[in-house]
Amino acid sequence: MLVAxxxxxFAILRLLPGDPIITRLGATAGAxxxxxxxxxxxxxxxxxxxxxxxxxxxxxxxxxxxxSYFSQFSVTDLISRRIGPTLELTAISIVFALLIAVPxxxxxxxxxxxxxxxxxxxxxxxxxxxxxxxLGILLILIFAVELQWLPAxxxxxxxxxxxxxxxxxxxxxxxxxxxxxxxxxxYLRASMIEVLDSSYIRTAEGKGVPHRxxxxxxxxRNALIPGLTMLGMVIGYTLGGVVIIxxxxxxxxxxxxxxESVFKRDYAVLQSVVLLICALFILTTLLVDVLSxxxxxxxxxxxxxx
Amino acid sequence: xxxxxxxxxxxxxxxxRRRVPRHGSGTTIVAIAVLAAIVLLCLIGPxxxxxxxxxxxxxxFAGPSASSWFGTDQLGRDLFARMVAGGRISLGIAxxxxxxxxxxxxxxGFTAALARxxxxxxxxxxxxxxxxxxxxxxxxxxxxxxxxxxxxxxxxVGVLLTPVTARMIRSAxxxxxxxxxxxxxxxxxxxxxxxxxxxxxxxxSAPLGVQASINAANAIILEAALSFVGLGVQPPDASxxxxxxxxxxxxYQSTSGxxxxxxxxxxxxxxxxxxxxxxxxxxxxxxRTG
Lengths: 306, 290
Description:
The structure holds two protein chains of two kinds.
Chain A: H1 2-15, H2 20-25, H3 33-42, H4 49-61, H5 75-110, H6 115-129, H7 132-146, H8 162-196, H9 199-206, H10 211-249, H11 254-264, H12 267-295, H13 297-305
Helix pairs in contact in A: 1-12, 5-6, 5-8, 5-10, 6-8, 7-8, 7-10, 8-10, 10-11, 10-12, 11-12, 12-13
Chain B: H1 4-19, H2 25-48, H3 79-115, H4 117-131, H5 135-146, H6 150-177, H7 180-187, H8 192-203, H9 205-228, H10 240-249, H11 256-289
Helix pairs in contact in B: 1-2, 1-9, 1-11, 2-3, 2-11, 3-4, 3-6, 3-9, 3-10, 4-6, 5-6, 6-9, 9-10, 9-11, 10-11
């Protein structure tokens, strides 16, 4: 899967026009074809496409993402400097999204049809219609420009100033969380309702298990397992959103690295960033699958029978 | 220039009311009306709006007034006129992208569903692979490769939305292929083309309508996002995404420069989502009775 995705990205970037060497030298240097040829040879850009692709793929397995065409840093270098903020932002966002969505979903499923439920459902359709970056800008407008509670942009590493780091992470992660929460909420609400209507919940209520315990230990636990698969998708959606949210909030992560590399036509960086984010996405999906099998023995036996 | 989502859905709507008058049809009317109003405003706006390119240094960052309804930007340009002009670009790209994605998606999905076997497997794995790449990142790759102009953006966004569309169409077609009427058509000797065009296509039009409005909404998001980071619509043209970007840079001077494009993007997407939800509901009802 990952190999196929990498081949696709590589092919699109290579087979289409735009010469990174000419871009790097600038338009004026275009007058000297020999210098261009030499640089192209050094970068290995005159080899057949397939050779280039296999070399790139082979290098990645040894942890070497190649050389940036533009800056003189290696891609591995650039990526390792940028990956921290991205991972931090994604992780905090998912935690926020769960903190928002899970309690709301449980409450709505218990009081379905109430004004609160309808308000939350309407709110979630509004949330789904707000693209992440539009939401981010509106939050900046409210909390940074008008109220001036929080800084609008920028990033301070955690080990330099933990307080500032957290303050600057609030708005971007809240943005991604509010965008992701409706997805989790809708799904979890539906699966909670299904579980609450099932016979084992009635049995539990019937034999006098306290209501709180029925909801949390019986219903929520069973409703969360199909929700886990959903979480994989939500993480994918959030990883995609990180790209533009980093740009909006001026966070030096993988997303803003990708945008910069497009401006510079630095394919070596771009293809590696895309590949890395895909890898993160596929890895989390896999992790979620394994985790749900671990939590729900039925999935394991189901596979054995099928 | 009208959004294809609204066009194809208007037709569906008539059929829907005949079938099952349900609650929620009011929502459909509102959604179509709002979308129609937005499209219409963008189409006829230039007739009465000011010239979006005219600079007016005396009136920079002016608030909304009778002469300029949405106020002006950092160069004194009329924001209403710029929104109308931007809307023509944003909606035009969204319409183009929707047409591209529906055509390619239908071709892809129908081929996979009808071919079965190896070709089906190959086409669906290809769809899976492309769907593993976050759309915006994929869009960046395409823009890096192709460069961006307005027509190119419609094509790129359309191609990006194709795999999801193809998947959906394939599963809709597969469902219809198992139905009694398909069996009947095969039994009386309908040709393959007749089967596809006269029997299956009309019956998958509801899910196609849903997908078209979802695609239109996604196209607006993708185009706005690309234009916002400066990789989409290029100056002197400005889409809603570009306007949002320019407003964002001057957010401390003027809030309307941000709020108005954001509102336009949000409202259009919201209405398209509502439409998709309503039509999806229709399909469910049909599924139960049929």
